[in-house]
């Protein structure tokens, strides 16, 4: 009997734990959507309404590419903004384009009602075994934490690698080996092995390097193609990159009440999606001695647009420069790089002045 072939839009390194749940928990095949490229966004933009934010377009392009690679069931996750409505729109657009796929929309599930997840998983595989899904999900959570720990280390050190490309190469090897992991024991071995390998990579890090915090919208900040490889651009210039926003921090180690409390001077109400985290981390990075902050978002992202006047106040209060990037399908690499370069020159001169 042919297995169901499930896919999920490409999203950073997180497709690996998702693949694990689909294969090991739900006993289905997984179609890894191709890495995001110009073709993905062109496909997505072609069939999307103009006004939607870019994650919608990336997801749609990624779905089409996955279908072309054989996916028969697509999964959408939903989110705390209009992303929650995107599933229905994606489904309808794909239907109108003539694609015959099963579309499972996790936005229908509710974290406060775990059984709703069961209902959605059942739509992927009606014969699923709950215990297997639960076991695979727990391991996938661990995988996410490991990915985030490794990638945190990379952000902190890649800007100082002695052998150009050594961090990137080892990261690719890590992800390839992670994909082969079968159980918890193997996962722990891979984690320890690669953490050691990363720590053994030669770096030449000064005592007081430039440090920049990145804040902003969930998808754009975590998907390197969407932010035009912003972190790599910073690393090339020998900058330590701080980025709190990842899946572990937002989903598993999130202290929403404390966050609300700590930003109340700047925002009394939750402005939706990632807005609270953006404000909170801007304050933290300013206090932690970052030399500058980079705010990234998709064009038209209302929650993040709302944070911008607040960020201006934080910038003035803490005397920290903040630069704003808004990405759309038309954004050019040249424009981004020129602004990153100018920002780098400014924070470097400023640091030099402050250390005199
Ligand atoms: S957070 Fe912003 S960019 Fe992301 S899906 Fe929501 S509205 Fe769109």
Overall description:
With 356 residues, this protein is of the alpha/beta class. The protein has three domains: 5-128, Rossmann fold (3-Layer(aba) Sandwich), CATH 3.40.50; 141-205; 206-356, 3-Layer(aba) Sandwich (Rossmann fold), CATH 3.40.50. 55% of the residues lie in helices and 10% in strands. It is built from 15 helices and eight strands. The strands form two sheets. The protein has a four-stranded parallel β-sheet with strand order 2-1-3-4, with helices on both faces. A four-stranded parallel β-sheet has the order 6-5-7-8, sandwiched between helices. Helix 14 (302-318) links the parallel strand 7 (292-298) and strand 8. Helix 1 packs antiparallel against helix 6 (130-157), helix 3 crosses helix 4 and helix 6 (130-157) packs antiparallel against helix 7 (166-179). The termini are far apart. The model has no long low-confidence stretch (mean pLDDT 93). It binds iron/sulfur cluster. Iron/sulfur cluster binds next to helix 9 and helix 14.
